[in-house]
């Protein structure tokens, strides 16, 4: 048991004990958003991130531990931040467990909020957005898609039939058992930090975690989740590559090798929005990043991301972020 931890409380509720989690692992601490972005990219892949207020102080802290192919991470930013991941077929499933504060999640067209007592699965087959509050700290476990595929094969289940909730899940039932075992694993990782862990023990613990993860986190009432079609993935990659160029639905459909009608139907099914709306979201996210990190002119940013009409850009930006782009610039200085 780790110092200050109440195993009885964790065992009764399944809510992770937060103060000492991975406490024996040295933290990476930075106060620069670009440095934090580079560091997180190395561990979890490409993403966009911005502070909700440019003048807010960042106090990024990350602790990292490895168990076989699984990575265990505690992260906090110390400021309100917005994270956007728009690319699909990423290599990692992420299991995020809030330890302190609140997180807002948008995934699969659904919005939810998570705090202590919740679990969130960030599916690599889906784009997602996070808003993390200044006091938010979380445990994020990276699970390679290939590792999960192998675990499913051992259970004689098809990887393509994975079905996770798009929303935050309350920790109860089988999820509570998963949380109790996760708490135990973090304690074992801490204890092994000085002398390492015997390989076959590491393998057994990893296999047990994967078993409980699949048992607890999979949606029990669905045989098959809506899988993002290849046409949508191709269209998304094409739009991201041409984020600053004028694009028509016809050009995107042609790049994806399907008709415009089929493209709209596939986006509505997989993403809950039209291709044009999805592209607008990506452009607004990139524009906000530029406005918070160095751009000096709203007009310049609007034209750079092919809005053409500055008024239309300002209205769309206000609808998305609750403030005009000029206010974002003002708050930065």
Describe this structure in words.
With 333 residues, this protein is an alpha+beta fold. The protein folds into 2 domains: 7-217, Jelly Rolls, CATH 2.60.120; 230-332, Orthogonal Bundle (Arc Repressor Mutant, subunit A), CATH 1.10.10.60. The chain has helices at residues 7-13, 33-44, 145-154, 173-192, 199-217, 230-241, 249-256, 260-271, 275-293, 298-304, 310-321, 325-332; strands spanning 28-30, 48-51, 60-67, 70-76, 81-85, 92-100, 103-107, 110-114, 118-122, 128-132, 137-144, 169-170. Strands 1-3-4-11-6-9-12 form a 7-stranded antiparallel beta sheet, with helices on both faces. Helix 6 packs parallel to helix 9. The model is unreliable at 1-12 and 221-226 (pLDDT under 50).
CATH class of the largest domain: Mainly Beta
**Alpha plus pi helix count:** 12
Average of the residue pLDDT scores: 84
CATH topology of the largest domain: Jelly Rolls
Instruction: Compute the CA-based radius of gyration.
Output: 21 Å
The low-confidence runs, each spanning 5 or more residues with pLDDT under 50, are 1-12, 221-226
Largest sheet: 7 strands, antiparallel
Largest sheet, order of strands side by side? 1-3-4-11-6-9-12
Number of domains: 2
| Strand portion | 15-25%
User: Which term fits the overall shape?
Assistant: globular
The secondary-structure element order is: HEHEEEEEEEEEEHEHHHHHHHHH
Structural class: alpha+beta
Number of strands: 12
Fourth-level CATH superfamily of the largest domain: Jelly Rolls
CATH structural architecture of the largest domain? Sandwich
> In angstroms, what separates the terminal alpha carbons?
47 Å
């Amino acid at each position: 048991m780790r110092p200050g931890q109440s195993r009885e409380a964790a065992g009764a509720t399944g809510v992770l004990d937060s103060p000492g989690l991975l406490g024996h692992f040295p933290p990476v601490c930075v106060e620069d958003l670009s440095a934090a972005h580079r560091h997180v990219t190395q561990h979890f892949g490409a993403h966009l991130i911005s502070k909700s207020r440019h003048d807010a102080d960042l106090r990024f802290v990350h602790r990292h531990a490895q168990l076989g192919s699984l990575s265990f991470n505690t992260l906090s930013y110390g400021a309100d931040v917005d994270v956007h991941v728009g690319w699909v077929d990423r290599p990692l499933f992420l299991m995020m467990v809030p330890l302190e504060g609140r997180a807002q999640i948008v995934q699969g067209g659904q919005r939810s909020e998570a705090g202590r007592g919740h679990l969130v699965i960030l599916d690599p087959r889906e784009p997602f957005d996070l808003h993390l509050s200044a006091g938010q700290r979380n445990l994020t476990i990276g699970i390679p898609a290939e590792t999960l595929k192998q675990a499913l094969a051992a259970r004689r289940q098809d990887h393509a039939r994975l079905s996770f909730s798009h929303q935050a899940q309350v920790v109860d039932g089988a999820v509570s058992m998963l949380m109790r075992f996760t708490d135990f694993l973090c304690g074992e990782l801490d204890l092994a930090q000085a002398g390492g862990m015997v390989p076959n023990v590491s393998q057994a613990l990893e296999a047990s975690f994967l078993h409980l993860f699949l048992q607890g986190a999979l949606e029990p009432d669905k045989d098959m989740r809506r899988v993002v079609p290849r046409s949508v993935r191709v269209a998304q990659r094409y739009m991201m590559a041409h984020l600053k160029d004028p694009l028509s639905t016809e050009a995107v459909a042609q790049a994806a090798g399907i008709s415009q009608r089929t493209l709209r139907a596939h986006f509505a099914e997989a993403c809950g929005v039209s291709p044009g709306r999805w592209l607008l979201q990506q452009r607004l996210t990139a524009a906000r990043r530029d406005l918070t990190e160095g751009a000096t002119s709203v007009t310049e940013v609007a034209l750079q991301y092919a809005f053409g009409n500055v008024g239309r850009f300002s209205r769309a930006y206000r609808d998305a972020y609750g403030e005009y782009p000029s206010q974002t610039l003002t708050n930065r200085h």
